[in-house]
Write a structure and sequence with these properties.
Jelly Rolls; globular; 1 helix; 5% helix; seven-stranded antiparallel beta sheet
């Protein structure tokens, strides 16, 4: 059995917004952490649902027909194939559950976040 993992330590170690770090895997599901500021680009995942569990901050998951506002301790599942755009005015820290890593351009990661960048004011 592997050692325990700290969500807080893993989140503190992230250098890029909207990038995911895999902490563990169980039953084919990756348990990942990420932090966000600003927004991703509109995107969808044809191959998996995407589950957000908010740890700190506020996160709004924009859908084409409504916004889902999350606070610490809230969970929301974006069904596979549903277009969405997570957005936050300040830093939000969250857990993502899914079958693969989705923090790439196709997964909505904005160009500005590569290399530790921040969104334009």
């Amino acid at each position: 059995m592997d050692d325990k993992v700290s969500f807080t330590d893993a989140l503190d170690g992230l250098t890029e917004f909207w990038s995911q770090k895999v902490l563990a895997e169980a039953n084919g599901t990756l348990i990942k952490v990420a932090k966000g500021t600003g927004s991703t680009t509109w995107h969808h995942h044809d191959d998996q649902d995407e589950t957000f569990i908010l740890i700190e901050g506020d996160l709004t998951v924009q859908l084409r027909d409504r916004d889902v506002v999350l606070g610490p301790g809230d969970v929301f599942v974006v069904p596979r194939g549903v277009e969405h755009c997570p957005v936050t005015a300040s830093e939000a820290r969250f857990i993502i559950l899914g079958t693969s890593v989705t923090s790439n351009a196709a997964g909505g990661k904005p160009d500005w976040s590569v290399g530790g960048g921040v969104p334009a004011p």
